[in-house]
Amino acid sequence: MRGAAPYTVPLLAALALLWQGCRVRDLTEGPYDFTASSVERDDCLLNPAAGPLPSADLTSTGNWIYLQYDWFGMQLAGRYRDQGFFDDGPEQFFVDGSAQNVSADVGGVHCTLDAATAHLEGTTLSDTRFTGTLRFRYEARQPDECYCETWVTFQALHR
Questions:
Q1: 140: burial class by Cβ within 10 Å (0-12, 13-18, 19+)?
Q2: What is the pLDDT of residues 85-137, one digit of tens each?
Q3: 93 exposed, middle or buried (CB, 10 Å; 0-12, 13-18, 19+)?
Q4: Cα separation of 143 and 29, whole Å?
Q5: Long-range pairs of 57-60 with CB within 8 A, sequence gap ≥ 24
Q6: Angle subtended at Cα 76 by Cα 29 and Cα 52, rounded to the nearest 5 degrees
Q7: What angle do CA 40, 45, 49 make, to 5 degrees?
Q8: Cα dist. 87→82, 93, 99 in Å?
């Protein structure tokens, strides 16, 4: 650019980059109750449609989001997905967590698990409500029944 100050282009580039990541996150922090909307898979025989899913406490810092989840006392951590500054669509996020050396029952089989993992994909509907999918997985070497997954579509509401 001719005639422009030498710092104009770098300044505009820096502002454009910052503008993409500076967003106000509307999801209210605190306790959330989860309810199953549908069950896509239940190899672990958790029977999530029979009652409430484990609850969680949500906190966030900038683009990072954390759920202290009541399933094996797991801390799930993740982040909001990238979204343009002027995109007013619903916020989307993901969190993952695991617990090691825990035990659980799968049907009539007692399992000592190497790990229990959870993956959550969420979409905000309002400042106190979000929906998404939860995937629970049990990982164990033996017996085969102890390696399983449960997939649930859920709604979460701030308490």
A1: buried
A2: 777 789 999 999 999 999 999 989 999 999 999 999 999 999 999 999 999 99
A3: buried
A4: 40
A5: 57/30, 57/31, 57/32, 58/27, 58/28, 58/29, 58/30, 58/31, 58/32, 59/29, 60/25, 60/27, 60/29
A6: 75
A7: 55
A8: 10, 15, 36
Q: Which amino acid is at 33?
A: D
| 3-state DSSP of the chain | CCCCCCCHHHHHHHHHHHHHHCCCCCCCCEEEEEEEEEEEEECCCCCHHHCCEEEEEEEEECCEEEEEECCCCCEEEEEECCCCCCCCCCCEEEEEEEEEEEEEEECCEEEEEEEEEEEEEEEEEECCEEEEEEEEEEECCCCHHHCEEEEEEEEEEEC
Amino acid letter, residue 140: A
The identity of residue 80, as a single letter, is Y
Which pTM value belongs to this model?
0.82
Residue 155 neighbours by CB under 8 Å, 6+ apart? 34, 35, 37, 129, 130, 131
Q: CA-CA distance, 67 to 76, in Å (whole number)?
A: 5
